[in-house]
Amino acid sequence: MQPGEGRLKMDNGMKSLRDTICSLLPDKNPTFIFKDLHVVETLQEFWETKNKQGAVFKNGSLVVYESVPSPFAPYVCYVTLPGGSCFGNFQYCSTKAEARRDAARVALVNSVFNEQPSRLITMEFIRSSIEEAVASVSGSLHDAKDPTTSIGAYHYMLEANKGKTMLEFQELMTVFQLLHWNGNLKSLRERKCSRQDVISYYSKQSLDDCLRSQMALDWILKEKRISGIITQELQSSLKDLEKARETGYELRFYKEKKF
Q1: Which stretches are transmembrane (predicted)?
Q2: What is the DSSP string of 183-212?
Q3: What is the tally of structural domains in the chain?
């Protein structure tokens, strides 16, 4: 990187963020938007504006909050965005209102950042992601052309979601993370289902009450075979959720596990 190139990229990134805010929230000052005490209302306005601009959400544009019951601080609040992504407060919050604002702030930062060009799945992004994946497993780029390999399946999923944002892709990945955690993907492999067929089918499935009910039945059957496994998994899931929340990660996968 040439001297000053890093600074230029940072300046361009900040300009892109300001442009996004001015486009979707024209009455807000980009300098103070993430410090605003009315961040809850700002987050809702952001997603309503996206909806008016043509974005389609299965359950409407309403942002949903969930406060964790607690008789004392620190309080915890989760916020689920219209697309399905979930975030939580990661600061120590002494009131429920403060936890709600902090969760909204985390979600707003991610929502605005997700609008940046760098967050779109493009051919350049796919190529870079596959190269990184291959390097991480000491594999071969030829594997990307073979859908029976894990690299090939990942390449197929990226190609199928070209043009989507990373949050949209993460919402899809959450379904497959849950299927893997639940043991469904292993069962499908044992039944000789191809990865391409599995991806094609479940890419069209939403994370709804029907899918949750199917997974719940699977865990009831597991409990009959291994007594106490549900309690053990619940404790592990709660720890994972807490750790992810405190680091500001997207939480849908961790949150769905505890249900």
Answers
A1: none
A2: THHHHHHHTT--HHHHHHHHTT----HHHH
A3: 3
